[in-house]
Design goal:
By secondary structure, this protein is α/β, with parallel strands linked by helices. The chain has a single domain (about 5-195), classed as Hexapeptide repeat proteins (UDP N-Acetylglucosamine Acyltransferase, domain 1, 3 Solenoid). Helix content is about 25%, strand content about 30%. It has helices at about 5-10, 20-35, 40-50, 115-120, 185-195, and strands at about 15, 60, 65-70, 75, 80, 85-90, 95, 100, 105-110, 110, 125, 130, 135-140, 145, 150, 155, 160, 170-175, 180. The strands form four sheets. Strands 2-5-8-13-16-18-19 form a seven-stranded mixed β-sheet, with no helix packed on it. A five-stranded parallel β-sheet has the order 3-6-9-14-17. Helix 2 packs antiparallel against helix 3 (about 40-50). The longest helix is centred in the N-terminal third of the chain and has 19 residues, at about 20-35. The protein is globular and about 60 Å long. The chain starts with a helix and ends in a 5-residue tail after the last helix.
């Protein structure tokens, strides 16, 4: 197997491989162009993301600056929005659902390194996929660690470090991130009542 095939299969691999280095350089060139376009060049930025990501939908917006490793392992659903400074280390697949909002400085890390220095010094890495469901809001400075799945209709509080799976329909927060409570229709009624929203 090539190092790229090992990476995509979730096996230990060496990131200094020539093919992977070329892939990262290509992504960095696209990301550099994306981050340096004028604010009004929204269509051009959108085209660059479509060129970079493995899958996009119709409606999405990513505030620059943005960083990623490869790009082709990132899939986003419809109505995706990310605030400033999103970082995705996409050595494995990152699947993001529809109607997902990211606050500023969200970091998604599929990549990991061996604990023992001997293997780490030989530049071995591994990666595990991350999945984020529909209708999810990640607050500012949230970190998602390798192998994590976040369910549908979830809110993750600012500054959380998510190390384990989060089920559907909950508010979770903390370091490490833990479920705080269930999200119910009472939350919807709270906003109608307190912010005079139209039903």
């Amino acid at each position: 197997m090539t190092e790229k095939e090992k990476m995509l299969a979730g096996k230990a691999y060496q990131a200094g491989d020539k093919e992977l280095s070329r892939d990262r350089l290509k992504a960095r060139e696209i990301v550099f162009e994306f981050n340096n376009l004028a604010p009004k060049q929204i269509k051009q930025r959108k085209q660059l993301i479509k060129q970079l990501f493995g899958k996009t939908d119709t409606m999405f917006y990513i505030e620059p600056p943005f960083r990623c490793d490869y790009g082709y392992n990132i899939e986003i659903g419809d109505h995706f929005y990310s605030n400033f400074n999103l970082t995705i280390l996409d050595c494995a697949k990152v699947s993001i659902g529809s109607h997902v909002f990211f606050g500023p400085n969200v970091a998604i890390y599929t990549a990991g390194h061996p604990f023992h220095h001997y293997l780490r010094n030989k530049e071995y890495e591994w990666a595990q996929p991350i999945t984020i469901g529909d209708n999810v809001w990640l607050g500012g400075n949230v970190v998602i660690n390798p192998g994590v799945t976040i369910g549908h209709n979830v809110v993750i509080g600012s500054g959380s470090v998510v190390t384990k799976a989060i089920p559907d329909n909950v508010f979770a927060a903390g370091n490490p991130c833990k479920v705080i409570r269930e999200i119910t229709d009472a939350d919807k009624e709270f906003y109608y009542k307190n912010f005079t929203l139209e039903q």
